[in-house]
Backbone:
């Protein structure tokens, strides 16, 4: 493509090709072709009647700077176009978020035990014990038993377990 007096010989061309493969492996063949085309066109400086590996490396260095600048500009533009916060202003997304928030606001009533008309004597005794225990943080729903807060159902299970373990098996 260019007329120069001092061309590279076959050994220099082989060495240059190996150098490119080892040191500039990240570039595609299209990138190398573009770099060489731009160098031959004189974009990376004047060619002083010789061609060798040092000139090719200078071209690649200049090409890298151009390429990095171009890629950075493309990425910046892409990031500006893909602003994630704009997505949240789309009417369908706003509606979906509102529906999800409404579902999370639903408060279910706590599970309550069915009131028994005629509870057994042990249940009455456990209810009295529970009522005599101190309240936890002035909360009527919890009582403190063995330094731990309990609701009645949990307290009853704990006490039943204790009563069963303490029974004599005679």
Residues:
């Amino acid at each position: 493509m260019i007329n120069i007096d001092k061309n590279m010989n076959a050994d220099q061309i082989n060495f240059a090709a190996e150098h490119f493969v080892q040191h500039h492996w990240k570039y595609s063949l299209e990138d190398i072709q573009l770099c060489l085309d731009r160098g031959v066109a004189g974009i990376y400086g004047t060619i002083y009647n010789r061609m060798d590996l040092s000139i090719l490396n200078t071209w690649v260095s200049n090409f890298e700077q151009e390429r990095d600048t171009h890629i950075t500009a493309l990425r910046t533009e892409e990031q500006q176009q893909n602003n994630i916060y704009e997505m949240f202003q789309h009417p369908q997304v706003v509606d979906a978020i509102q529906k999800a928030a409404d579902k999370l606001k639903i408060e279910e009533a706590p599970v309550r035990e069915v009131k028994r008309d005629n509870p057994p004597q042990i249940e009455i005794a456990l209810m009295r014990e529970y009522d005599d225990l101190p309240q936890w943080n002035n909360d009527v729903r919890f009582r403190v038993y063995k330094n731990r807060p309990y609701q009645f159902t949990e307290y009853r299970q704990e006490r039943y377990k204790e009563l069963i373990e303490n029974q004599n098996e005679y």
User: Anything to note?
Assistant: The beta strands are 135-136, 139-145, 148-150.
